[in-house]
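JOB MANIFEST
job_type = single_chain_structure
chain_count = 1
residues = 581
[input]
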Amino acid sequence: MATVPSAPQDMKLRQTLQQLHQLTYEMAQALYAQRELVAQRDIDLPLEPLQALEHLSHELYVLSQSASDSSLELQRLRQLARTAQIINSRLSLDQVLNEVIDTVVALTGAERGFIVLKEQASGQFVIKVARKFDQGDFETEAMRVSRTILEQVIQSGESVLTTNAQDDPRFADVESVFDLRLRSLLCVPLKLKGQVIGAIYVDNRVLEVVFTPQDERLVSVFANQAAIAIENARLFDSVRAALAEVTAIRDFMDNVFDSIASGVITADQNDVVMLINQAAARILDIERYYAQGKSLWAVLPTLYEGFQQLVAEVRRRNIEQTIEVEPVLARRGQVSLTLRLSPFRDQTQTTKGVAIVLDDLTTLKQQQATLSAVRRYLPTADNLQAIDMLELGGVEREISILFCDIRGFTAFSEQLSPEALMLTINQYLTVSSGAIEAFGGIVDKFMGDAAVGLFNTQFNPMDNHALKAVRAALKLLEDVHALHRTLPRDHCLEYGIGVHTGLAVLGNVGSPRRKEFTAIGETVQLAKYLQELAPGGEVIISEATYMQVAPYVQVEPAKLRRALEPHESPPRLFRVLAVTA
C-alpha cells in the first residue's frame, strides 16, 4: 500500500529539485562559456551535450514547479481532511454548516459562499448559511445568487465551474448572471446516497479565473464528506428535538400527576409498583422513590386484612371497587381513607395491573365531627378557623358586648297582625345582625326584638374588639335609618344600644339534648343596663369601653335615668356622637 509523503518530505523534495535545476543551469552556462573560448582557438566542440544539459535543467525546473503545485494541492487535501474530521465530530447542524462554508471560502478564495439545503418538511431548497470572504454575514440584498445555476446543479447532480460567467456561452441567456455581474463561479452538489440534498455555491463578482479544476475536485471531495456530516447533524437535531419533546411531555405529566390531590398508585400484574405520586406517598407515610419498582405489599402499610385479595379480584374480574378503611399508620396514627380500585389497561384494553386512587378523609371527618358538636352552640360555626383549638367547656376572657333593643316595640306590635309583625321584626333583626357581623361580631342570641352581639370570643378572636363593637353600633343606627326609607312612616322604630367591655365566662350551657353557646357574668348584665339607659337612636358605652376607644371617638357624658343608692358613686357613662378615625 502506497504511503502519502508527509509535509517535511514534500518540502525536501521540492528543495532538491530546485537545487538540481540551479546546478544544471549553472553547469550549462559554464560549458557554453568554455565552448566559446575553445572556439576562438578553432576547436569546434559538439553542441548536442550542452543542449541536452540545458534541456535537463528545464525539465528539472518544470518538475520542481509541478512538485510545488502537487504539494500545495496535497496541503489543501490534508486541510480538507482535517476539516472533514472536525465537521463529522460536530453534532449541531449550525456548527457543521458554518465550518463547511468557512473552509470552502478560505480554500478557494471566493468572494461569497452559500450552502443551500433541501427543507425536509416542504421539499424546497433554501439558503441555510452565507459568508463573505471576511467571514462576515450578509445583508438580505447581498444574499442573491443565480437560481438558474443552482437549479441546474441540483437537478443534474453535476458541478458547474466557470472562469468568467459573463463570456461563458452556457450562461448567455441567464439573466441572473448579468444582473449579479458574476465572474468566477463554482457550484458543487451535496449528495447523500446518490440523492442531492443541497449545494455549495461560491463566486467572485470581480475577478476572473479564481476557481480552477483542482478547486472543483477538492470541493467535490469535501462536499461528499460534508453531506454526511450535515445529515448526521440533522438526525442529531431531530433526535434532540424529539427527546426534548418527550422530556417536556414527561415533565408535564409528572407535574400533572403530582398536582392531583388524590393519591395514585399503579401496580402491574405481578403487583410491582409502577407509579406512585407525591400525594399517595404523603397519605400513606411512605418513601415515594423507595416504593418505585418494589412489591406493592412490601411498601404499603396494612390497610385491612382482606386488601390483598381485593386487589387480586379487581385484576382478575376486571371490576372496580370502592372501600373506606381506617388503618393505623406508624407516624400518623388512625386515618380515614377512601380507596377506589380499577383495572389498569393498555391501549388494547388488556388488563395489565391495578390502579389505586386514595383520598384522605381524616381531617375532613375530624372537622365534621367537631362542627357537628359546635353547630349545637352556634349557627355560624361553618366559618370557623382552627376549630380544634376552641374551648367550649367554659373560659374567662375579655370581650365587648353590644346589646340593642327596639324602643316602643310592644305598643307597636299590638297594632299589627301576626304575619305583618313577624315580617317587620325580622327586617329589624336582619339589620342588627348584619351590622354586628360586618365588624366580625357574632350574634349570641335574639330575645324578641332585642339582639346581643359578642366580640373577641373563642369563635371570633380579634384586636380592638371594643372599637369594632362601637363601630358596629353606629352602623346599626345608620342601617336602621336606611331601612326607614323603605318602610311606612308608622313602622319606623329606633334601637337603643349599649356597649360594655369586660371579663365574661364563655362556653356551652344547657342540657345534653340542647346546648347553647353564650356569655355569662356581670359584664353581660352591665351591657344590658346600658342598653336600657340609651334612648332610641343613641349608643351608650361604659367607662371601660371608652378607655379603649377614646382616641377614635367623639362622645359626651350620658345621664343616668335612675336614683342612686346612698352608698353608690355615679358611674361614668358616655353617649357616642361619632367615630373620628
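[summary]
Confidence is low (pLDDT under 50) at residues 1-5, 376-389.
Residues 213-259 form the longest helix (47 residues).
exit_status = 0
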